[in-house]
Amino acid sequence: MLFDIDHVPFSRKGRFLTLSTMRVPGLDGERALYLRRVSGGDERPSLGRLCRVEFLDGEGRPAATRFQLSPDQLVARTGEGIVRFVIGDGERLHIRGENAGVRFHVEGSRYDYVYRTPGGEWCLVAAGENVKFIPRGRLGELAVSGKWDRDRSTDVSFTLSGEGTFEGNVDFFRALPPPEGPGSFEEAHAAVTAEFGAWCRSIPAGVPGQEEAQRLAAYLLWANTVPAEGVLTRPAIYMSKNGMINIWSWDNAFSALGVAAFDEELAFGQFAAIFDHQDASGLLPDYVNDREALFAFTKPPVHGWAVSCMARDNPAFLTPERRAYLRDAIGRQVSYWLTHGRAGNNVLPSYFHGNDSGWDNASFFAEGGPVLSPDLPVFLILACEALANLLEDDPGKAARWLRIADELQALLVGTLWTGETFAARLAADPERILPGESLIQFMPLLLGSRLPAAMCRQLVARLVEGAFITDWGPATESPRSPFYEDDGYWRGPIWAPTTYLLWDGVRRQGGGALAREIAQKFCALANAHGMAENFDARSGRGLRDRAFAWTSAVYLLLAQSLRDEKPVKS
């Protein structure tokens, strides 16, 4: 069962409001359902935790609960009782139940409190989360508790229940509650069902027999979207509403690719949400959320490659306005790496930290940095080509970017080609090859016809013979490597973005059968184990966060490629 509330949060497109299971603070290993508002980023220990949700039987006693998650509602069953949740307009939670009850315990900060508004309604304030909420009962009973203690309320909770059917809703807000009427549970349920149905119908068909995986991927790209608020200038697809509640500046490119075929504006917004915060130097932030843009790290410049992929598949994506925006933004991004990422024009730019590469703790950063890695010049070359295409009305500027691409390629081959593969080297000791067998050595396959045929043949042979492609797909570190770890983050597990980059590189080199094999393995992996952050390369087991947007995006892209491709003869 891929739709499992233990791994997949319940939320809705354009909302911060989320229900998900989390560890209960102070209780080792115990988990509970929490009501959350996933704003403020993933560096805060609370991760937006507002209330622990407790379910009651018909007699008002705590009851064991079974959950059923679907995109339109979360259903909790307590013996003979049932409680249903739907997310309605804005940040509004609708609740309806029978022969049961539900209690929300505020478990927050020092200054949480409850009070009566001038209109007589109860208002609860989660001060540490900067959120207020007003619960309302439409049917049954609403009970609100809270004991005043000097300058705060303790034991704050609210309960919805009834002898038969009960119904209520909760509005979440920062300043003033929304003025419009709350609407009924069934009206909200009908609206969200129609919205998600329309979203699913817009998505290109996938692999026959993998309908649940297709639906989960569609749901996660939809549900992981949050609205423009605070620092977020555009609606953005967070990586997850479990713990990874940011938009990172290479994750965004894959999320954009995943939705570009059916929601161009959302796809463009993924680029702009990051580029709107670009430093004057051209440096992109590591991530953005509604609270901040972080510049302690950055991410690899995949955006030119991604834009070229989108424009190739849908030329209409590049409207004049988008073309101008992306031309300027990507141009500044490339200039940053060429100006501030290297000591001069005759050397390659480098990553200062593993996080800058996006491969965090990969084997090529085992000795620290800065590191000369083969993927960085490849992405810059592809970005230069993208800029030349974006500057089709200015041949002089376009030719300049193509000259820079040629210069970077000469440096790439001259510095990192060993005669057998592309190695990573320390910028301070470029004569020595860094140890490890990372998948990153194959990223130059993305250069397509730019890559000499002999190099291509050697790389593909090394990829196949080096045990990188396991039964489940391409491991980020070869299982034969001494650096390999089953759950080593970037030292072995299968990741969606690297799988897609490798697939595209092999395909650009004419390796249709191998590309199809990579796509088939990844889709089978996601179909069996869901949309995890990464996967054990040997067992296929989903690792870390199990509700990831870029995994969902890559699944949809590769599933569509398998559906659209004619069978390739081996």
TrEMBL record:
Record GO terms (molecular function): hydrolase activity
InterPro entries attached to this UniProt entry: 6-hairpin_glycosidase_sf, 6hp_glycosidase-like_sf, Glycoside_hydrolase_63, MGH1-like_GH
SUPFAM superfamilies: Six-hairpin glycosidases
Keyword Transmembrane helix on entry: no
Gene3D superfamilies, sorted: 1.50.10.10
Superkingdom of source: Bacteria
Pfam families hit by this protein: MGH1-like_GH (PF22422)
Mannosylglycerate hydrolase MGH1-like glycoside hydrolase domain segment(s): 246-551
Record's keyword terms, sorted: Glycosidase, Hydrolase, Plasmid
Family (UniProt): Belongs to the glycosyl hydrolase 63 family.
Protein name: Glycoside hydrolase family 37
